[in-house]
Design a protein that fits this description.
By secondary structure, this protein is an alpha/beta fold. It has one domain: P-loop containing nucleotide triphosphate hydrolases (Rossmann fold, 3-Layer(aba) Sandwich). It has an eight-stranded mixed β-sheet, sandwiched between helices. α1 crosses α9, α4 crosses α5 and α7 packs across α8. The termini are close together. The structure holds adenosine-5'-triphosphate and magnesium ion. Adenosine-5'-triphosphate binds next to α1 and α7.
Length: about 220
């Protein structure tokens, strides 16, 4: 199953969501995470360096915390600029065949990489925050998804309360990930926040929210 995390708006929590969702799914299932953002946020969040080499898509992976992590590399820029959507979709589907779940982190745009990840997806997760411009972006994404006949779960990030979004394709689920400094601390250390929380906090709270998200997405 391909789970694509997408929102063309920057900084809403795509990378945070994909990293922690993949970490959570990997506890019980054969899970991979592919970083399709040339900026390599998910790669860094798993404590690895962005690859300077030019690999084909899916050409390199490393197993960390039970997640088969496909790091960002220079080749992604080539796909973004010159790649075609059809072959990118088929490569992503091919990679997914080796896993129960393939989580895809996407860049903050609707270019070749993001659109391919959107088309290849069995499930789509769209992180949103309670800001007007983010909701505007979700509305634009909704039109794109409608034209592709796809649906997305909107999960609220950086808020105590879930934002209610009820568009044609993008509909919110009742999960709100609150603001927490654990996220930036964990990224600095190169570990998923949920992993960090398990060791650092006596009464973990974020972990159960991602468990709930994982359950809703895969069912
Ligand atoms: N719930 C949260 N509480 C506090 N900080 C958060 C939370 N979620 C994300 N962040 C922080 O906000 C910043 C942006 O998050 P993230 O990188 O996941 O967003 P993104 O949508 O992937 O951004 P981009 O579009 O640039 O790829 C990061 O520094 C991250 O650590
Ligand atoms: Mg990101």
């Amino acid at each position: 199953m391909i789970i694509t995390v997408i929102n063309q708006k920057g900084g809403v929590g795509k990378t945070t969501t994909s990293v922690n969702l993949a970490y959570t799914l990997a506890k019980t299932k054969n899970t991979a995470l592919i970083d399709l953002d040339p900026e390599g946020g998910a790669t860094v969040s798993f404590g690895i360096k962005r690859e300077k080499k030019d690999y084909p898509l899916g050409g390199k992976s490393v197993n960390i915390f039970n997640v088969e992590m496909f790091p960002a590399h220079i080749g992604l820029l080539k796909v973004e600029l010159n790649g075609d959507i059809e072959s990118t979709v088929s490569t992503l589907r091919k990679i997914a065949e080796s896993f129960d779940y393939l989580v895809i982190d996407t860049p903050p745009n609707l270019g070749t990489l993001s659109v391919s990840a959107m088309m290849a997806a069995d499930k789509i997760v769209t992180p949103i925050t309670p800001q007007p411009l983010v909701l505007e972006a979700a509305k634009n994404l909704d039109s794109r998804l409608v034209s592709l006949n796809k649906k997305a779960f909107a999960v609220t990030n950086m808020s105590k309360k879930a934002v209610n979004v009820d568009y044609s394709a993008v509909k919110s689920i009742d999960i709100a990930i609150p603001q927490s400094k654990l996220f930036s601390e964990a990224t600095r250390l190169g570990v998923p926040a949920i992993r960090y929380e398990e060791f650092r906090v006596k009464k973990p709270k974020l972990g159960s929210l991602y468990e709930k998200l994982a359950k809703m997405v895969i069912e």
